[in-house]
Write a structure and sequence with these properties.
two-stranded parallel sheet, five-stranded antiparallel beta sheet, 23% strand, single chain, 203 residues, 7 strands, alpha+beta, binds inosinic acid
């Protein structure tokens, strides 16, 4: 099954492909000649996910899904949340964002946090959303070079290492994105059956 993931983030694309496994071919907006930056101007993760999916649908005419993710830190009242990408600067400066987060948590004992992902899917003129989360805590210092974004400072519950230290297979088994993408896959499988999609017969 071919799906468009409305993202220009290759890390997200790789993760989603690994989580979905065989049976899905993931395309990106650039495969359809859309190279513009995808806007995310809403004030909720849901709003941004929908905006991204609608933008790509509008420009390509094709069904697609988009995700928006935020890191919500308990001691910061849920910040940076929907502002996670632009926490320190206007750009997606991962190093500056994690540095600012560690600075804002200096001397703070309560390090609880969660990643939350919302996926918006546009399919046959309808909109569906799927959510995933992983709970954990913010480390005292950045560690590891795998993954992306805030991975070097996030230690998932039940582990002692950050997402950036853990193997990709572990992150992709337990992450916020994994949970949301799996819900999407279950939905698509059922949807295909209900629509009598021949490629899903017997699955
Ligand atoms: P967005 O969903 O692309 O808007 O991401 C918001 C911010 O969270 C960006 O700074 C991303 O780098 C970061 N982010 C998104 N997903 C992850 C993840 O799986 N791990 C770590 N950081 C992430």
């Amino acid at each position: 099954m071919e799906l468009i993931f409305a993202t220009n983030n290759r890390h997200k694309l790789e993760e989603a492909a690994q989580i979905l496994g065989g049976g899905y071919i993931l395309k990106t907006p650039s495969d359809f000649g859309l190279s513009e930056e995808i806007p995310e101007e809403r004030d909720t993760l849901e709003g941004n996910a929908v905006q991204k999916a609608e933008f790509v649908k509008f420009h390509t005419g094709l069904d697609c899904f988009a995700d928006d993710t935020g890191l919500e830190v308990e001691a910061l009242g849920g910040e940076p949340g929907v502002r996670s990408a632009r926490y320190a600067t206007d750009g997606h400066d991962f190093g500056a964002n994690t540095a600012l987060l560690l600075k804002n948590l200096e001397g703070v004992a309560d390090r609880r946090a969660r990643f939350r992902t919302v996926i918006a899917l546009i399919l046959d003129g309808r909109l569906y959303t799927f959510e995933g989360e992983v709970r954990g805590k913010i480390s005292r210092t950045a560690a590891g070079n795998k993954g992306f974004g805030y991975d070097p400072v996030f230690i998932p519950e039940g582990y002692t290492e950050t997402f950036a230290q853990l193997p990709a297979e572990v992150k992709n088994a337990i992450s916020h994105r994994a949970e949301a993408v799996r819900k999407l896959a279950v939905f698509l499988k059922d949807y295909g059956k209900y629509q009598g999609d021949p490629s899903l017969k017997g699955k």
